[in-house]
Amino acid sequence: MGRKHCSYCYGRGHTRPTCPEIRREIQKNPNGYQAQVAERKAKEKARRGPTVRRCSYCKETGHNKKTCTTLKFDRVEYRVKNKKFAKAFIEGCKEFGLYPGALLELILPEEIYGDRGLDYRQSQLERQRQAFGNLAMVIGFAERNLNSNLANSDKYLGRNQACLRVRFPNGKKTHLSLPREFQHVAPNSDECKNGFWKMGCPVDASKIESVFSAEWKSGDLSVNRQLGLEG
Hints:
Layout: H1 20-28, H2 33-48, H3 69-96, E1 103-106, H4 109-113, H5 120-132, E2 135-141, E3 164-167, E4 173-176, H6 190-193, E5 197-201, H7 214-218, H8 223-226
Antiparallel strand pairs: 1-2, 1-5, 2-3, 3-4
């Protein structure tokens, strides 16, 4: 981060409110323009009263985000939840053979609907089938989306349900939600529970830990996003 820059004297190491040039000018000419500006600002500050220090995270007064005990507690809580989720996800990958190179398969309509009739969801399924085919190869994982929010019932996930990077036979690449076999790991992911993809051709996932970063396995990676501290 660069040093402070004064917009008045263009010096470095301070800003306009603390500029020594302005202070000298006020001392030299107590009735001049800079003195009048300083007096007007002092009156306005007195009129507003003392500034209430409020935390931008918990909205309580008396501290800021850097010293917020609520934020510190929430960080620890999410880190523990994410680490627990990571362990469960890795176990699921080993059980179902989810690893780069594994194939996902589109579910047949009758597997979803039975005899209930196929309307809007059928058209969605058929559009995917026509656009990409029946298979998708796993080529990686979206680590930031693989976190405990997938298992917390009070979290709205939206686009963050897209956890897998895949490539289709036509060469196109995109992100997909977890296949249906992972419902027990990601019970809050509607796209996992009611989505169109299942494990097609599993592979040996015994080395799945090596695919992920140490930050993800420790539970730290997604914490700022989960706490709303990222844009």
